[in-house]
């Protein structure tokens, strides 16, 4: 009997450890659901992509086919289909999508122009992509939203770590406190980032204005499309520069004039003033809004059993 009890206790301890380490989906009540799929957060994505692409591993991988330049619309659609469902899905599907996203990155590898091997699952590079998200969220509120309380900030940080688990990033590669986070964030910017081929493209003031015409807009005359993209491209470049971290701009001597600052201050004020007046359904990308409606119509479907051992099969270390 003692042997049986000991075996049961050991099994229970193992199961408890597995449950603790299992990725837990972010539900409809999370701050991440409120923010990640909003167009407000999308204002921060260009600068996040700049930060990510400045990592030498990511620069090597992304510059291989330059899809961001030659097929930006297709790349954006692909990102939405792969990453956003890690948040905006029913629990089991969210876990599955996190696993699928990591497995997709397993195939991205090669040799850069200097003969160095690279792999998308390089621990520093893979975690860096996720690390840029917490900074982007806080500065989204700073520029375009409202003050964030200490409690809400802590919640956002915890959810950010939770998202990292869903993406298969081990705890050892993710800062566990905010102090650790900012030390690591600044270290990567100041010591590891480079100005490579990708940043030559992304930081070109004409980059967004030169986007190719998407299939959905093929009926729009090219001169009108170019006029629209020229205006939007100018705006997106200004917003990208303004929302980059100061130490990044300083390191790479990115010009940010007093005139730029005044313009961005006015732009941010306009967003803070008028964005809350936009109907809720129009504040989210379609995929996110569809999930939000589904969670309201079928709340039971989003109740996740965190003791379900089947989720352990998807844990990646």
Q: What are its keywords?
A:
317 residues, two-stranded antiparallel sheet, 16 helices, 2% strand, globular, disordered C terminus
Write the layout of secondary structure elements.
Blueprint: H1 2-21, H2 31-35, H3 39-42, H4 45-53, H5 56-62, H6 67-70, H7 72-83, H8 91-106, E1 109-111, E2 117-119, H9 123-144, H10 150-166, H11 178-192, H12 197-202, H13 222-243, H14 246-251, H15 258-274, H16 286-297
Helix pairs in contact: 4-9, 4-13, 9-10
Organism: Ketobacter alkanivorans
Pfam family, one: MPAB_Lcp_cat
Domain ER-bound oxygenase mpaB/mpaB'/Rubber oxygenase catalytic: 33-273
Structure commentary:
The protein has 317 residues and is mainly α. The protein has one domain (28-297). The protein contains 16 helices and two strands. The protein has helices spanning 2-21, 31-35, 39-42, 45-53, 56-62, 67-70, 72-83, 91-106, 123-144, 150-166, 178-192, 197-202, 222-243, 246-251, 258-274, 286-297, and strands spanning 109-111, 117-119. A hairpin with a 5-residue loop joins β1 and β2 (117-119). α4 packs antiparallel against α9 and α4 crosses α13. The chain is globular. The two termini are 36 Å apart. The model is unreliable at 11-19 and 306-317 (pLDDT under 50). GO terms for molecular function: oxidoreductase activity. It comes from Ketobacter alkanivorans. Residues 1-29 are annotated as: Disordered. This is ER-bound oxygenase mpaB/mpaB'/Rubber oxygenase catalytic domain-containing protein.
């Amino acid at each position: 009997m003692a042997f049986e009890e000991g075996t049961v206790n050991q099994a229970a301890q193992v199961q408890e450890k597995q449950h603790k380490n299992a990725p837990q989906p972010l539900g409809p009540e999370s701050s991440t659901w409120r923010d990640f799929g909003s167009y407000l957060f999308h204002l921060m994505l260009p600068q996040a992509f700049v930060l990510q692409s400045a990592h030498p591993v990511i620069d090597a991988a992304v510059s291989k086919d330059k899809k961001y330049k030659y097929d930006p619309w297709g790349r954006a659609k692909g990102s939405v289909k792969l990453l956003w469902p890690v948040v905006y899905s029913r629990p089991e599907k969210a876990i599955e999508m996190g696993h699928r996203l990591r497995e997709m990155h397993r195939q991205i590898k090669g040799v850069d122009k200097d003969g160095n091997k690279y792999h998308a699952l390089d621990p520093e590079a893979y975690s860096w992509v996720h690390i840029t998200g917490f900074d982007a969220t806080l500065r989204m509120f700073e520029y375009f939203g409202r003050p964030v309380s200490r409690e809400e900030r802590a919640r956002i940080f915890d959810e950010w770590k939770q998202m990292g688990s869903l993406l298969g990033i081990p705890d050892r590669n993710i800062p566990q406190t905010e102090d650790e986070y900012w030390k690591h964030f600044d270290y990567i910017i100041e010591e590891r980032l480079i100005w490579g081929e990708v940043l030559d493209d992304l930081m070109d003031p004409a980059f967004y204005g030169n986007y190719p015409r998407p299939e959905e807009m093929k009926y729009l005359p090219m001169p009108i499309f170019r006029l629209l993209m020229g205006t939007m491209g100018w705006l997106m470049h200004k917003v990208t520069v303004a929302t980059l971290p100061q130490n990044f701009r300083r390191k790479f001597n990115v010009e940010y004039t007093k005139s730029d600052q005044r313009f961005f201050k006015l732009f941010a004020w306009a967003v803070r003033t008028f964005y809350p007046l936009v109907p809720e359904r129009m504040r989210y990308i379609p995929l996110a809004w569809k999930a939000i409606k589904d969670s309201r119509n079928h709340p039971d479907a989003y109740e996740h059993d965190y003791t379900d051992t089947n989720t352990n099969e998807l844990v990646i270390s």
